[in-house]
Each structure stands twice: as C-alpha cells, then as structure tokens.
Design brief:
By secondary structure, the chain is mainly alpha-helical. It is 53% helix and 0% strand. It has 7 helices and no strands.
C-alpha cells in the first residue's frame, strides 16, 4: 500500500485554468504600460516648442516650385513673375515697377467709374450714359473743350510730378515749393496732399503697398475683360452679367464670340 504520511504530486492545473489565473496580471501590466506611454507623450508635447505657421504676402510663387529671381527681391507683391526676364536691367525694372503701379491705379479708378455709374443708372438713382458712350455726350456744366483743357492741366501736373519723382527720388516739394507735395521719399508714393488719411505714415504701409498692387492687378484684368466684352456684345459689364444670368446655358463668352464672328465678314463661310 501507499506509505502513510506521504502524498503524491499535486495535479497540474489545466492550460485554461492557468490562463484564467494569469489574465488579471496581464491586464494590469497592459494598463500600466498604456498609462506610462500616455505620460511620456504628454511630457514630450509639453516640452516641444509651439510652432507657428504664418503665410506672408509676396512669399508665394506664381509657379509652384519655381525660384524667384533675385533682382525682384524687396518689391511689393513679388511672386517671382518675370518669364521674359524684363527686369534684369535695374533701370528697366525701376521703370516697369512704376508703370505697373500707375496702370494699376488707373485700372481701379476706371473699373469704379464704369461699374458704379451703370449700377446707379440701373436702379434709377442716376441718369448717365454707359462708359462707351460717355465721350460723345454733352454735359451741362461744361463743354468738351473746357473738360479737355481742365484734364490737360490736372493730369499734366500729376504726370510731371510723377516723372520728376522718378528721375530724382525724394525731390517732391522742391518744385514750386509746395510743402503739401513733399512726398514720402519712396518712388511712386507721393504722400502729403495725395494721402489725406496718412496711411503712408503708419506701420502698415508695406502691407498697404502689397494690397494696392494686388487689387490693381485684378483691376487691370477686369478692365481687359470689360473692353473685350463691350467690343463683342455692345453692353456694359452689369448688363452683360444680367443677360448671362437670364439664360446661362445659351449666353456665354463662347456663344457671344460665335455670334459676333458669324455676323462679321471674317467668318469665311464657317457659319
């Protein structure tokens, strides 16, 4: 028989019972590891310096991935657009910058002078001919000769000052001793009398220069569109827009160009 006081080996636990016993400890270790990882991530994010990304006007390129020419550095609204290398010569670049600025300002004035009177006339607040007929109209307050003479005097003075400022920057105020036309010292920005709000004296002056040239470029494109649109349709911008909105699927740039071409002597039997 079996000796008294001696016991056989204890029966081994089944794998299922072992897993059941070890599951709480494994789960506890997983929770502790996850908590440690979370603390480490929080510590790293707390130590990492905050990065601030800010897009600045003029930093983008007109062709993504291209390099800006070095000679355009420092210009307001510089997007590196000079595919024909017109600005490589410093003398030419200085003139082109002023030419663009002047055309931009005239385009903004021209666009406002076309759209605003047309809108006021459309809604019955004013009665004025469209811009493409205004030159042939007679005004009660002055005849054409008086208007032409006045324009020569005012525009001649402004253009003379602009040219004088270009040839001798910072010289505004010397001619005729007019202190009000002393200028800002920056070519193309007369200041003084022409800056009644004093924007050229603020810290935002550089930002205003970029905003002006950006809006001026958009206005030049808008004026080119108005010229072409009126030539083809014989309508002002608001009247042409209203006609397109009334029948957008049949009245478009392509349809109007086709109609104009077919009604001209240049169709060569294509219509």
């Amino acid at each position: 028989g079996r000796p008294q006081g001696k016991r056989g080996p204890l029966p081994r636990a089944s794998p299922r019972s072992q897993h059941a016993q070890s599951s709480p400890s494994v789960a506890m270790m997983s929770v502790m590891r996850a908590a440690g990882a979370a603390r480490a991530a929080a510590s790293c994010s707390a130590k990492a310096p905050a990065r601030r990304v800010q897009a600045r006007a003029g930093e983008a390129n007109w062709i993504p991935g291209s390099e800006k020419p070095a000679y355009l550095e420092g210009l307001a609204g510089n997007y590196g657009a000079d595919p024909f290398k017109l600005g490589e010569d410093p003398a030419n670049l200085a003139w082109y910058v002023q030419a663009e600025l002047v055309h931009a300002r005239f385009a903004m004035l021209g666009y406002a002078g076309i759209v605003i009177p047309e809108a006021l006339t459309k809604y019955g607040l004013w009665d004025i001919p469209p811009w493409y007929e205004a030159g042939a109209s007679e005004f009660e307050f002055a005849d054409a000769k008086t208007l032409l003479a006045t324009q020569f005097i005012l525009m001649g003075f402004a253009e003379y000052k602009r040219l004088y400022d270009f040839r001798k920057p910072g010289s505004q105020g010397e001619a005729m001793g007019a202190e009000g036309f002393a200028g800002t010292g920056v070519n193309g920005y007369p200041g003084g009398f022409f800056d009644p709000l004093g924007l050229s004296k603020t810290k935002e002056f550089e930002k205003y220069k970029v905003m002006e040239i950006a809006n001026g470029r958009a206005a030049m494109l808008a004026m080119a569109g108005i010229y072409g649109q009126t030539t083809i349709t014989g309508l002002g911008p608001l009247a042409a827009l209203e006609k397109h909105r009334a029948d957008p699927w049949h009245v478009s740039v392509l349809s109007e160009m086709t109609t104009k071409l077919c009604s001209s002597s240049l169709n060569y039997g294509a219509c």
